[in-house]
């Protein structure tokens, strides 16, 4: 048993929750950062293969448990090392992506992006293996953390931006370190040291944060992005404003050869011009030569209706509520077999649990890729029906093992 004597398992559950919060936010931040580097097709591929790291972490844990079945101290020390590395890995990977120049080779992004997931998969699979008797509670704590992370990440990216959000997940992960290390060991000074280090980073001046957010290596160096394309053409340009949120990265670019115009980009592309206006109607005459002015040349226009992404907000909110309720129902039933299966494995050889975790991670990636391929070819209805049939067949096959 790797648990320190006399320690409550609530520490373990809180550690799982905080770890899940940080991992979920990391996944969303990773998606946002990669979206600003590539198009969304590549973003999906990179994120999916990164999550495969959860399975790889489970396989690594399985091999170590298999080779050190009786050496509890080795397993405990190794687990603590991985736990302490978790918050550091977030800073390292996302910081690396931010300063690297653009590369068309997606392996440059896939391999580093896997690192936090590999560490997280190792931690979670090891804990599930050791404490399979409370797998339902562990799974509940895991899902609670993921749910809280899905809410927190929206506020984090909207109000803090990407740099401070990276610091935030490192702090959250450091709190998980404190819970885990207190549960596993009496020597937890290093846990507080890691937390203190990341808390101190909150006090970095905002002007330094702004400079870091503007100097995103891939946007500055990629010819596929508006700013990089302008620079490569020989013109001088400057990013005068940058804002990250849950939807995108928005930049305002000033080009030296045209002082009356700036360019607004979303994720480095989707450019829109922004013109200087001094408040005098006469200064707008120069724009009457543009083709966009053609609809206004006929008749008198007292009112103009502009239809954009803001339309239909009430209808969108209703769809979100209804969709959440509909997804919650199958999610409830699909969440039951996993902890039951872990508990059943624990009654036999519990060292098999990490490899089961690894298979789960690998199949999740395969399933996500297949779902996209099937939906692109046959549509979403066929995709949902296919998923329901596969799930039904699995339940039928395991009807004697899992009593729902």
Automatic annotation (TrEMBL):
This is Spermine synthase. It comes from the Bacteria. It comes from Thermoanaerobacterium thermosaccharolyticum (strain ATCC 7956 / DSM 571 / NCIMB 9385 / NCA 3814 / NCTC 13789 / WDCM 00135 / 2032) (Clostridium thermosaccharolyticum). The chain crosses the membrane at residues 12-34, 40-62, 83-100, 106-127, 139-157, 163-181, 188-209, 320-339, 351-374, 380-398. The keyword Cell membrane does not apply. Keywords: Membrane, Transmembrane, Transmembrane helix.
